[in-house]
């Protein structure tokens, strides 16, 4: 063999490796496309990426989850899915290369990954049965076949067949066969991908149509108009009512549940429920509706963070519904102290029965800011309880209410070390100036929001550097269940300054300086902002 031959052969080997790696990637895409097509038919949440992602979210330690929310915010789920896809791509390339050496190893690997996906899908809390394994399994089988087919063309022809001319060495693989196979596999992948998308769109349409048909009845008890003076006319302050499209979203759903309101049912049952009930969406709309402004806060919100919003909710008073079912609060001898709400995606949230029945406007909400709930925010029905963090009250896509006890049942986040009971902590935030802003010397308006839902805000104070606490002007209060804007005209002098804020709630408690992380029951501490005055 000449040096030239050797070089050619090495080049061939390199080419074969590259093609094997690409075959792995292509077969991986085929597997995913077929899996997603089957998932569109079985259940969108049963797809391998969503199922494995969901399982990963459930197993992520609270600290890591906290970090992910802090670093990526609402994009944390996108980052997770991109991570899974990257890992799959690496595995696919590896399996492609492995298959060059060991005839069946690559395909076996693909099947093994399929088994992992199937196991994840069937063990999800919202799994509806063994059919959830089908997307991963059928995807893996197709992927394994594709890999086997592609790699079959990259192998040297059977020994003994003499090359027609010895110099230079003939390609040791079936180029035409490979190209044909690759084209066929790519076409199948694209076809499956497009069909899956179309089918998914179709399936979402019943839900979308049912939402489009919702006509919210006029509430028997409308919200009071927002008092004049509750909304300061100052640039940079969060609007008093958060527009729906700007309202924060926090949930574990990788695929937003699309529930058809006409098929939706809510079950109310459990300890001390003397008259269990199953309600339809129309049953709810026929009941007396109330409309209230309520500020919702996420327990994961850091001091100064964005996971708080104020909306106008329309819904059924939960206390009335529970009374109809015979539920009594513990203070009146009721045996259940925990209300567990369960969503269509298997999330569980537990609220104190006493709080829900103490006269506050705990709602089964059907509307947000005058519209049916958006899918992202829980269509068709969600809970909202003034004064409790979202994770212990605000169940979206709710389908089941069970009366039980805190001793008997731990909900999703409680199992992950978050507190059983979590009333919202008194907090305040500086919206303007922004951190590291460079305002001009003179009067600078410092302004923001403060909240202590269901207690109400009585005072907000601002401190400049190490100076005394000074009273801010409070905007008018809408209700004690909503946040309150405040402002402070600051005579800013040149140089660097630190502005801090603290609130006092109506119980007289001053917002604590003690810094606490969000886990287990909400962040505490004072929000401060550093600015340089020019
Ligand atoms: N089904 C379901 N409901 C849920 C959650 C969830 O993950 N799944 N997250 C809760 C949390 S932690 C919060 S803070 C609120 C957020 O509601 P939003 O997304 O409408 O702002 O929803 C709550 N309801
Ligand atoms: Mo939350």
UniProtKB/TrEMBL annotation:
This is Molybdopterin-dependent oxidoreductase. It comes from Streptomyces flavalbus. The keyword 4Fe-4S does not apply. It holds the Pfam family Oxidored_molyb. Residues 255-413 form the Oxidoreductase molybdopterin-binding domain. Keywords: Membrane, Transmembrane, Transmembrane helix. The chain crosses the membrane at residues 20-42, 78-97, 104-121.
């Amino acid at each position: 063999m000449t040096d030239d031959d050797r070089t050619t052969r090495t080049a061939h080997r390199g080419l074969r490796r590259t093609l094997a790696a690409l075959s792995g990637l292509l077969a991986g895409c085929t597997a995913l496309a077929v899996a997603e097509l089957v998932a569109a038919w079985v259940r969108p949440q049963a797809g391998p990426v969503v199922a494995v992602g969901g399982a990963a979210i459930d197993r992520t330690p609270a600290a890591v989850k906290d970090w992910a929310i802090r670093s990526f915010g609402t994009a944390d789920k996108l980052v997770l899915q991109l991570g899974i896809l990257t890992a799959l791509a690496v595995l696919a390339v590896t399996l492609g290369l492995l298959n060059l050496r060991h005839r069946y190893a690559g395909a076996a690997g693909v099947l093994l990954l399929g088994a992992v996906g199937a196991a994840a899908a069937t063990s999800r809390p919202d799994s509806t049965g063994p059919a959830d394994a089908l997307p991963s399994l059928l995807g893996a089988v197709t992927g394994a076949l594709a890999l086997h087919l592609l790699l079959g063309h990259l192998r040297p022809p059977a020994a003994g067949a003499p090359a027609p001319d010895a110099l230079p060495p003939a390609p040791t693989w079936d180029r035409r066969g490979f190209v044909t196979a690759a084209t066929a596999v790519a076409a199948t992948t694209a076809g499956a991908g497009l069909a899956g998308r179309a089918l998914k769109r179709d399936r979402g349409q019943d839900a979308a149509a049912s939402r489009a048909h919702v006509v919210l009845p006029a509430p028997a008890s409308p919200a009071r108009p927002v008092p004049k003076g509750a909304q300061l006319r100052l640039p940079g302050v969060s609007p008093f009512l958060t527009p729906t499209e700007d309202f924060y979203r926090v949930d574990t759903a990788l695929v937003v549940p699309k529930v058809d309101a006409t098929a939706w049912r809510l079950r109310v049952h459990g300890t001390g429920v003397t008259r269990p009930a199953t309600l339809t969406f129309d049953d709810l709309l026929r009941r007396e509706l109330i409309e209230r402004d309520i500020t919702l806060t996420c327990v994961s919100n850091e001091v100064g963070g964005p996971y708080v919003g104020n909306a106008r909710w329309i819904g059924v008073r939960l206390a009335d519904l529970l009374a109809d079912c015979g539920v009594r609060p513990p203070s009146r001898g009721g045996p259940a102290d925990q209300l567990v709400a369960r969503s269509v995606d298997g999330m569980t949230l537990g609220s104190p029965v006493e709080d829900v029945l103490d006269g506050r406007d705990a709602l089964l909400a059907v509307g947000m800011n005058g519209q049916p709930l958006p899918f992202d925010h829980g269509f068709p029905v969600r809970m909202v309880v003034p004064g409790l963090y979202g994770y212990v009250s605000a169940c979206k896509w709710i389908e089941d209410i069970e009366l039980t006890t805190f001793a008997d049942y731990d909900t999703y986040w409680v199992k992950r070390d978050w507190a059983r009971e979590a009333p919202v902590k008194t907090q305040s935030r500086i919206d303007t100036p922004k951190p590291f802003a460079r305002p001009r010397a003179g009067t600078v308006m410092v302004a923001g929001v403060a909240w202590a839902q269901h207690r109400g805000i009585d005072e907000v104070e601002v401190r400049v550097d190490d100076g005394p606490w000074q009273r801010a002007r409070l905007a008018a209060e809408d209700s004690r269940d909503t946040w309150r804007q405040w402002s402070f005209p600051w005579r800013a002098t040149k140089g660097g300054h630190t502005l801090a804020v603290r609130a006092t709630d109506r119980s007289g408690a001053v917002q604590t300086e003690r810094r606490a992380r969000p886990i287990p029951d909400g962040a505490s501490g004072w929000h401060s902002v550093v600015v340089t005055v020019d």
